[in-house]
Amino acid sequence: MISFLRYVLRRTLQNMKGNLFLDLITIGIISISMLIFAAFTLLAFNLTHLLQIWEDRIEIIAYLKRGVPATELESLLEKTRFIEGVEMVRYISPDDAMAFMETKLGEQKNLLEGIQPTILPASFQIQLKKDYRNSIKIKEVIAHLKKIPQFEEIQYGQEWVESFSVIVHILRLTQWVLGGLLLMAIIFITSHTLQLTIFSRREEIEVMQWIGASPALIRVPFYIEGLLQGLLGAALSILFLFLLLQGVILYLPPSVSTWLAKIPVHFLPAETIVWILVAGMILGLFGSIVASMRVLKYR
Amino acid sequence: MRPETVIEMHHVFKTYPNQISALSDITLEIFSGEFVFIAGPSGCGKSVLLRIIFCAERPTKGEVVVCGLHVTQPGFKKIHYLRKMMGIISPEFKLLRDRSVVDNLTIALEVTGYDPKESKRKALEILDRVGLKKREGDSIIALSAGEQQRVAIARALVNAPSLILADEPTGNLDAQTTFDVMEIFRDLHLRGSTVVLATQDMDLLRRYPHRVIYLMDGKKADSMRI
Q1: DSSP code string of A22-64
Q2: Contact residues on chain B for A214, CB-CB shorter than 8 A
Q3: Per-residue confidence band for A135, with pLDDT thresholds at 50, 70 and 90
């Protein structure tokens, strides 16, 4: 077994050394294909992360009808707190609302001069439990709130979060469709370059068959070669993606980078990197198996 | 006591898709330790017969048993196992032209599990036997046809095979090299190996009196001893 492993590893290195140019081209093409897939994965990962942050910040604003007596407020707050999925309820008086607007307007708060806080409606700021910060569960809470007659209008930021989540879903779908096509391309490329490698070594393979080398001894070095091509291609794609991300962040115009500074940009997590490397290896291996099935017949 | 049969062929036919019949109803037995010539004019089917024995081709019909293995059985997958017991010498030599003389031998040893050092030692031993030890580091293309033939023979012998199949091993060789090569086969035969040698050289049959299986147009004439 040790001599078998030693022999196939030596043969693999000899093969790769002998076909260095072809191997480098294959690794390059695999890395470009994997880079496209990894870039989509990175984009989807960051947008999903952003979506999660925004979902975590989702809250409901229930505007009270004018003329709701202050005596009812406490019981109304209590009633709202008891709705399933509600974590916290805060009463926002018209004065609080005005103060909030002034804070938001900053230096331009003078725009509010002469406006009486009473024109602003009082409201309840409702924070939801974590499990309820999604499009299905939030609607259950809204349905309960709508049954309360003292509420005039109920607003929540879910609509645009939903639109954003549709974009993320489309991106994920594109990632997998494109990924599927790229994966097939990788198998095709690996398989064809290995067929060329096998063809360039046909004399040696024939001699090995004549002297009684087992099919495994002939095939395994090509399998390892495909596996290494896939692994190196995937590793390079991750390295390129990292450098690309750093480059993009470094060379962004200041206006865009100020805007982006508010959004946390992450690189692929270690787990995803491992998956991409494993996928590269499996694809390379599969390509080499396809190649050897086509052209490596024991004669 | 009847010696053990190494090769058995029963009613073997080989017809190519263009309807050319290479072998027709061949039945033969070759016993362990025998030196047998497969003789006949060019194109009579000698090479096809040898290629069927070492499983490079399958017969169209008939049964072939080599070293106790039914090689014509559907799905026979022990070709490599069978070839490890054989030394095959082809008229095209089948040497790796981009490798040195010694590398052409070590490859045969390494596939059977020898480590590189041990395989080199053994390869040099065999090269000494065929008179090519001094050329160990030379490239194959730097050798003459006779020397290349001797390398091919050395490679076939390096794993001490019990069965040697040689197709025209002395073709294109001068008289002295032919003698040297035949001496190697004679030596192997004396050491107990079964030697099957295909040739169209009638002089060779006269000089080395062994059993001859004579083929003519793919059919077997009676075995004869010259």
Answers
A1: HHHHHHHHHHHHHHHHHHHHHHHHHHHHHHHHHHHT-EEEEEE
A2: 80, 111
A3: confident
